[in-house]
Design goal:
Chain B: InterPro entries: CopC/D, CopC_dom, Cu-R_CopD_dom, Cu-Rt/internalin_Ig-like, Ig_E-set. Chain B: Its main location: membrane. Chain B: This is Copper resistance CopC/CopD family protein. Chain B: It is found in: Cell membrane. Chain B: Pfam families: CopC (PF04234), CopD (PF05425). The complex is a heterodimer of chains A (about 180) and B (about 525). Chain A is mainly beta. Helices cover about 10% and strands about 45% of the residues of chain A. The termini of chain A are far apart. Chain A has a 5-stranded antiparallel β-sheet, with no helix packed on it. In chain A, strands 1-3-8-5 form a 4-stranded antiparallel β-sheet, with no helix packed on it. In chain A, a hairpin with a 5-residue loop joins strand 10 and strand 11. Chain A has a single domain, classed as Uncharacterised protein YcnI-like PF07987, DUF1775 (Immunoglobulin-like, Sandwich), CATH 2.60.40.2230. Chain B has about 525 residues and is of the alpha+beta class. Chain B has 3 domains: about 120 residues, Immunoglobulin-like (Sandwich), CATH 2.60.40; about 280 residues; about 100 residues, Macroglobulin (MG2) domain (Immunoglobulin-like, Sandwich). Chain B is about 50% helix and about 25% strand. Chain B has 14 helices and 18 strands. In chain B, strands 2-9-8-4-5 form a 5-stranded mixed β-sheet, with no helix packed on it. A 5-stranded antiparallel β-sheet of chain B has the order 10-11-12-16-15, with no helix packed on it. Chain B is elongated and about 105 Å long. The two termini of chain B are about 30 Å apart.
Chain lengths: ~180, ~525
């Protein structure tokens, strides 16, 4: 009984920060018009299987993407055109990395790891909103965990089964 | 279990708040089901003593229930946690059928997760479809009586006219009796149109005076039968009335054909496939019944009162009837085979029972007929007066048997044949779900509780083709407390299919179709489907 009560308490306590249960970003807030270290925390594999591939989709408005290499993982940068041209410290930028793929690794279901990108959050992004980075974990035998759902208007991340990790955007820091 | 906790909600919320403020590191994992015993979708021969659910993480159950085949729910109270596995002692009273083990657990990350796993004991539950809805017995009785009147009018009235015109000259009382039978037929046929309307609309007998009942009655396929049959009755009256024998014969034959055709225009048998076989079979069956049964009353009369005419009539009757009865039996066998489909249905459906009763009466009738033919007909034809009178009495028995058979056959009006039951049972339920990025046309076959096949055509919103990477069907039934059951679909012949899905209960099921359009693009299409019992 006590255990169950505690479990319920824990459920109530943690229900509000459900994103922690899934692949998430360690740094929860960042100002627009700045460089951001996106640290993806991968807590488990796909229903007991190890993770072999981690793919991160770069949302529109995020440029100058530089992944941090990881030992034991091959790194691939999928490039393409942006829908518009962004200003990167005075340089117009209209194409760049749209997806990052770490592959060939073997992250056990009972192990934890972090995958890091350094990105620039353009001023075209709206402060006050949450920016989502859809992430796919691929495991052997076609198994996959897809953290790719983005809340629609009026929805919260808690309403979603597979929420994409997000970062809350803050106002640009003036004076640089 | 849950309500108990909810009772202390305020206190818990306070404690929760405190714990939350103290938490610096949150556990990073969520639980998912890795296996279940019996495994999801399994069919086991005997009730399992133990049930188990294994998760990817250690869990604590919040809700643990077993939904039984009849839809009732049992809380599973006796369980033990062993590492990541919940071992549950199953209730002792598990009968055959499909069960849903449904759970809601919380893992160390505190995220409650729900799900369902299905297993069947013996075989998956599949309830018999309720084809006969609640009936108004007054209307039904009236319909039944009017149907007997209709048959009497057609087979004895119109059939009798045919005999009187073709076999025996129309004389005296038997002519009046035939007029009376036709009159009964007309009244009963007209009445059955209104009653048919009442039955179709589900109205009580007093509503027979309303226009709606009659309009509806005539709008159904039975309306055509009524109109043609009334026409046949009037033709028959004229055929009896006219003086010229040639005219009388022609009209009597047309009336007979029209009457038999009228029956082929509606009813269970006429509606069955193959139509090219069934409609002619109904027509021939009706036609030959009318020829045979119609001859009985005139024959009794002739045997009793007109020695010479009776003998001549008997000779013609004895030549004609074997042919008619042969056709009657063959057409009847064809109808029975198509309608009943499988021999077991003779016993386990109402339609089959009626057919058995009818066959029993027919057997008795044939015994009487054979006795007639081999023991009495020859002596009667040879001029044996005693034999002739005995023959007349036996023909009275035959007539009563024929009426009894008609009365039994009239109850078929209320018993859909096994073929129709099978059609009702196999009726799928379909739903079209439309969303911004994709839409799906989902069909569940059959649309009733039990094992089903789910298939979906997935299209882009502009109806163009779309081949998603993955499609998953998720069924849940919040009213019955069944948490989501996920079933992966495979692409075959252009449709995403999942076989061996068991929807154990009738009622409203939430259906969600998860369409993975591309690696990063998932669309969830949701709707409610009504599953029949």
């Amino acid at each position: 009984m006590l255990k169950r009560t505690l479990a319920t308490v824990a459920a109530l306590a943690l229900g509000s920060s459900a994103a922690l249960a899934h692949v998430s970003l360690q740094l929860k807030e960042a100002p627009v018009g700045s460089t951001y270290r996106a640290i993806f925390q991968v807590p488990h594999g796909c229903e007991g299987k190890p993770t072999n591939v981690v793919r991160v989709q770069i949302p529109e408005g995020v440029i100058a993407v530089k992944p941090q290499p990881k030992a034991g993982w091959a790194l691939e940068k999928v490039k393409g055109a942006y829908t518009k041209s962004y200003d990167y410290y005075g340089t117009p930028t209209s194409e760049g990395v749209k997806e990052i793929v770490w592959s060939g690794g073997n992250l056990g279901d009972d192990e934890y790891d972090e995958f890091v990108l350094r990105v620039y959050l353009t001023k075209d992004l709206k402060a006050g909103e949450t920016l989502h980075f859809p992430v796919v974990q691929e495991c052997p035998d076609g198994a996959a965990e897809r953290w790719i759902e983005i809340p629609a208007a009026g929805q919260s991340e808690d309403d979603l089964e597979l929420p994409a990790p997000g970062v809350k955007l803050l106002d640009a820091v003036s004076g640089h | 279990m849950r309500n108990h906790h909810l009772g202390r909600f305020g206190l818990l919320a306070l404690i929760a708040g405190l714990i939350w403020s103290c938490l610096t590191i949150a556990a990073l994992a969520h639980a998912s089901l890795t296996s279940a015993t019996p495994s999801d979708g399994a069919v086991v021969a005997t009730p399992p003593a133990m049930l188990s659910l294994s998760f990817s993480e250690p869990v604590s159950p919040l809700v643990l229930k077993l939904v039984r085949p009849d839809g009732t729910t049992t809380n599973l109270e006796r369980f033990a946690l062993r590492d990541k596995t919940l071992e549950i002692t199953s209730p002792d009273d598990l009968g055959n059928g499909t069960y849903v083990m449904t759970w809601r657990v919380v893992s160390e990350d505190g995220h409650p997760v729900g799900g369902s796993s299905i297993f069947s004991i013996g075989a998956p539950s599949a309830s018999q479809p309720a084809a006969m809805e609640s009936a108004d017995w007054l209307v039904r009785s009236a319909l039944w009586i009017s149907r007997i009147g209709l048959y009497a009018g057609l087979f004895l009235g119109i059939g009798g006219t045919f005999t009187l015109r073709w076999l025996i000259s129309p004389t005296g009382s038997v002519r009046h009796a035939t007029f009376a039978l036709i009159a009964i037929g007309i009244i009963a046929t007209l009445a059955s149109a209104g009653l048919q309307g009442l039955d179709a609309l589900g109205l009580p007998l007093r509503e027979l005076v309303t226009r709606a009942a009659w309009a509806t009655g005539f709008e159904t396929s039975f309306g055509r039968t009524v109109l043609l049959l009334i026409g046949a009755f009037f033709l028959s009256v004229v055929a009896l009335w006219v003086q010229g024998p040639a005219m009388g014969r022609t009209l009597a034959a047309i009336a007979l054909i029209a009457g038999a055709a009228a029956l082929a225009l509606s009813g269970h048998a006429s509606a069955a496939a193959p139509q090219l076989l069934m409609r002619p079979a109904v027509f021939l069956h009706s036609l030959t019944i009318a020829i045979w049964a119609g001859a009985l009353l005139p024959l009794i009369h002739a045997l009793r009162h007109h020695v010479e005419a009776g003998r001549a009539a008997l000779a013609r009757f004895a030549r004609l009837i074997p042919v008619a009865v042969g056709i009657l039996v063959i057409a009847g066998i064809v109808l029975a085979i198509v309608q009943v489909e499988r021999p077991a249905a003779l016993l386990d459906t109402a339609y089959g029972n009626v057919l058995l009763a009818k066959l029993g009466l027919i057997l008795v009738l044939f015994l009487v007929v054979s006795f007639n033919r081999w023991a009495l007909t020859k002596p009667a034809q040879a001029g044996d007066g005693k034999a002739r009178h005995r023959l007349a009495r036996v023909v009275v028995v035959e007539t009563i048997l024929v009426l009894a058979i008609l009365a039994v056959a009239s109850t078929w009006r209320f018993t859909p044949p096994p073929r129709a039951l099978a059609v009702i049972a196999a009726q799928p339920v379909s739903v079209h779900i439309h969303a911004e990025k994709a839409m799906a046309e989902v069909t569940i076959t059959p649309g009733r509780a039990g094992p089903v096949e789910v298939s979906a055509f997935v299209m882009a919103p502009d109806f163009s083709a779309m081949v998603p990477k993955e499609v998953v069907f998720v069924f849940s039934n919040p009213q019955a407390g069944v948490e989501p059951m996920r079933r992966k679909a495979a692409l075959r012949d252009g449709a995403w299919r999942s076989e061996g899905v068991v929807l154990p209960l009738p009622g409203q099921w939430q259906l969600r179709v998860d369409v993975l359009i591309s690696d990063f693009d998932l669309v969830r299409l949701q709707d409610v489907v009504e599953i029949q019992p």
